[in-house]
């Protein structure tokens, strides 16, 4: 035991004599808060600890059963919440959609594919059979402003609420800057930047109308902050830099409405498309892991928790921030 907190037997006897009591309460560590000291030293007539005072925020309210009642970490609970996710038909978007379902949310995946991947239907069935919620699919191109706003409004009207959005739709292409055409560059910006903006705008309009606030998460990239060694994609990196700045500005503008906006910057993720890339450039399979501090590449499943955190009350005081998850790649 730390000698700073040890009370000798002679000192204990002396204090008992001075206080006129045969019992002595062990002092709390110096770092304990006033609330902690009060709770630890208070009890009712039955000797049961007094419940913690209510903290601000509904997720933290105490109950007769104790501080958090019968649930653990209720601030991560998304039960009954309605969340949209663009690019949710496959890959990282679908993985995050599954995490939202497991947290209790009703999820609407938006994607330009005519039909989602087979894994989507498996997740859809599990949502109904095992999770008591539902996963829906809406085919839409995030560049289609009119249809996008109509679709999001219809979802909000149907459910009477819209609580969150993950803007994950995006593309990546490798072209040298000397060979990039205006058409290819504009396509990248239209999907990755304008599409992300329009999706966020459509969701925010409904959140403002409903007056309940919400949380918006935009998928950026570590490539929005760094130049990737050996990977020639200037337009993609520029688009992700734009997403980072877009997220900060939307957070500033929509904060008064109770809408939080944050971004996630993933590192290299091993997806089906990346596996195809490794077939074409096998040297990258060995080189890329060496560029971060963990010496490996990430998996889509490793971003599940980040999605829940940013869309839930667990991050209720977080906005205008970028959550970097790149294995320390750009911290060297």
TrEMBL record:
Q: Which Pfam families match?
A: adh_short_C2
Source species, domain of life: Eukaryota
Q: InterPro entries this protein is in?
A: KR_dom, NAD(P)-bd_dom_sf, Sc_DH/Rdtase_CS, SDR_fam
**Keywords associated with the record:** NADP, Oxidoreductase
Which positions make up the signal peptide? none
Carries keyword Oxidoreductase?
Answer: yes
GO MF: oxidoreductase activity, acting on NAD(P)H, oxygen as acceptor; oxidoreductase activity, acting on the CH-OH group of donors, NAD or NADP as acceptor
Q: Where is the Ketoreductase domain?
A: 81-267
Sorted alphabetically, which Gene3D superfamilies does this protein's record hold? NAD(P)-binding Rossmann-like Domain
Family designation = Belongs to the short-chain dehydrogenases/reductases (SDR) family.
Which protein are we looking at?
Answer: NAD(P)-binding protein
């Amino acid at each position: 035991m730390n000698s700073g907190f040890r009370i000798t037997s002679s000192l204990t006897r002396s204090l008992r004599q001075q206080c006129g009591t045969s019992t002595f309460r062990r002092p709390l560590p110096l770092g304990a808060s006033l609330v902690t000291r009060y709770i630890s030293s208070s009890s009712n007539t039955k000797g049961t600890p007094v419940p913690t005072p209510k903290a601000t925020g509904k997720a933290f309210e105490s109950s007769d059963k104790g501080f958090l009642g019968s649930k653990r970490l209720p601030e991560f609970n998304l039960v009954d919440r309605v969340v949209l996710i663009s690019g949710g038909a496959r890959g990282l978007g679908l993985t995050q959609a599954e995490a939202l379902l497991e947290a209790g949310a009703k999820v609407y995946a938006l994607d330009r594919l005519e039909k989602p991947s087979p894994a989507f239907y498996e997740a859809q069935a599990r949502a109904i059979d095992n999770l008591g919620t539902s996963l829906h699919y809406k085919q839409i191109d995030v560049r289609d402003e009119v249809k996008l706003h109509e679709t999001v409004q219809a979802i909000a009207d149907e459910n009477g609420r819209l609580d969150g959005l993950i803007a994950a739709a995006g593309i990546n292409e490798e072209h040298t800057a000397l060979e990039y055409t205006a058409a290819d560059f504009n396509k990248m910006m239209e999907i990755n930047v304008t599409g992300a903006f329009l999706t966020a705008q459509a969701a925010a309009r409904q959140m403002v109308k409903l007056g309940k606030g919400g949380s918006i998460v935009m998928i950026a990239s570590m490539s929005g902050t760094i130049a990737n060694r050996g990977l020639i994609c200037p337009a993609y990196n520029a688009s992700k830099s734009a997403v980072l700045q877009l997220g900060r500005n939307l957070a500033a503008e929509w904060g008064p409405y109770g809408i939080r906006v944050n971004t996630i910057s993933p590192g290299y993720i091993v997806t089906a498309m990346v596996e195809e890339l490794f077939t074409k450039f096998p040297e990258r399979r060995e080189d890329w892991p060496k560029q971060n501090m963990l010496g490996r590449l990430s998996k889509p499943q490793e971003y599940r928790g980040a999605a829940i955190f940013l869309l839930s009350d667990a991050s209720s005081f977080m906005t205008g921030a970028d959550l970097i998850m790149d294995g320390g790649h750009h911290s060297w």
